[in-house]
Amino acid sequence: MRRTGLLALAIAAACNNSFSGDDPVPVDAGTGDGSADDGDTRSDGGSDAAEAGPTSCVVAQPFSATGWQFLGDATLSGTTAILTPLAQDKKGGVAWGTRHSFGRMNATYQIRIKHAAGESPADGLAFVFVDSKAPPTLGAGGLTWGACQLPGGYAVVVDTDPDQPGDGMRLKLVSVASPTCLDALAFAPLGDLANGEPHTVQVDANAGTIRVDVDGATVLTHTIAGWSTYEGWFGFTAATGVLDEEAAVISATIAFPTEPPCP
Known about the structure:
The chain is mostly beta strands. It is built from no helices and 15 strands. A hairpin with a 2-residue loop joins β12 and β13.
């Protein structure tokens, strides 16, 4: 298992240019320095990522045994999805199985990650949007968050593993069809998101341009080369290896502005 406090993000969508402020400089894999603009904090304190018109399809159902599918070691605590318990060698996820088009998507979700006292954080969690007609399933575990080796698509990863090169947590954008997801399409450094406190992540995808905000500040913007719009399912996954880490998603609102109202 890796131990790189990275925030890994892998997304398959394009960023909404309506966000306020100057865009940060995109950071692509292979640059070696992992640097990125710290981004702009929204002046109005609002959330662009979950905005949708009255005719849009918006999935805002609280986590429950109805609608959401719980996979692997994932459990439900009230209306919070616990993807992995505070234990080693666990892998879990929660998925919305209805197929959607990911050409245009706005997602806002609140996460909470905590690790065992006196230990380093484990691996983090991923928001996946998968190119597949098959039912939702989990990918490989351990340092790949249960998100890799899926049929296709992308993931935005909060990588909390502290022992990878570059030190510190990272936000990553990865291709989930990759055998390891270790070669991120883009990445950016993050603060400590494994502190047991709630943190809000916003993902705006627009025709292959992905913009990610964390706690109101833009962290990463990247345009995926050769993007082609696809349909599939979305969800959240996490996995642990030799370290303990509880990864949870408290709430999620996913909007598809170009789709008619959800059934």
